[in-house]
Amino acid sequence: MPDQEENPTPKFDPRPPGQRRRAGESEADSDLRRGRRNRSGEDNSERRRIGIMSRISGRSELDKARTARYEPYTYESNGPQLKWVVLALAAWIVVSLILAMQDRATSSYLTELRDQGIQSIPPSQQASLIDFQQIKDFAEKEGFACDPEADLSSPGCIRLLEVQEEYVSLRNTGNLLFLGLMAVLVVNMFTFGALTHRASRNLPTLKSEKQGFAPERAVIWFFVPVFNLFKPWLVFREMFKASDPNVSTIDDTVWKTKGSVPTSVHVWAGIFIAVFIFNPRTIGWFWYPVRETIEDVLIAQSRLVMADILLALLGAAAILVVVDLHRRQEARHAKVGKVIVTPAPPVDSLEQALKEGIRRKELENKQARKNRDDETKGT
To answer: Taking the domains of the chain in order of start, what are their residue ranges?
Structure first.
């Protein structure tokens, strides 16, 4: 019988066939092929996927910011971020002006129809989707010799469909441009918010203490209804004052009274309020909800052109504001030099509550001892 040491039994891998290491395959390759899990039970491929999605969504940057929130920091220039903000705002201006031209083209076409004697608005759906009754009602109202249920090839029906299709084409183009404007708005919200947060966070490094708005709240106020009509103006007013390079750096709070605010900030805030009140959405929902005749629609279209131009002006004013703010902070930073700021640690609400409870208990005990002493003296 052969000795077992001379003929050892081959090693048996108890794992399922799909997870066993193949011949000539390293352990790393085997782990990569199988998507091996780490000690915490998380799949490595899943971790890589989550990491990519985290970077795309900005979650990783948010996690880093939260981690470093209470660590010492110095001045952080907004130079790289400013380029993205200006680019996003420039795109906002371009799309707003193109939308204004499109609304102007729609208005011009409706004027032509009115001059031809048409007094009502053509159906605003595609001919393949529209209810023939709507076309029939429009034809009867405007005197077109067309019976859509009988023959659409007659000259009257051809002319009617041409009018309707041209109007639908203009409206659809306007709607697509408005959707594009909303997409650019989302980009601006992220870029403008990031610049605002960093500019507000820079204030202590510029020897400007006791700011009224924390960096997080400086951004949040843009999204709080009603308050976003005036809080953003107060936020930027404070940042401009605290970033004024002409203010003395000896007193860290003198900026509150000596800091200046340029006129562009007030103009931007005024346009900001005007856009909230008068924009393409409020025109259709509030200012001109009734558009039954072609005259009603022409008035609404002219107001849409004004609202689009107002949006472009808001973008231009915002560019002036962020560029001026960046220049101020850069100049003041060059004046004060490198300043290291250590944020105050977060307040533990439970600890504060315990301290407050102990303080109240001590006051109660003190008052009780005083009352006993008074009673003893009285007796």
So the answer is: 74-336
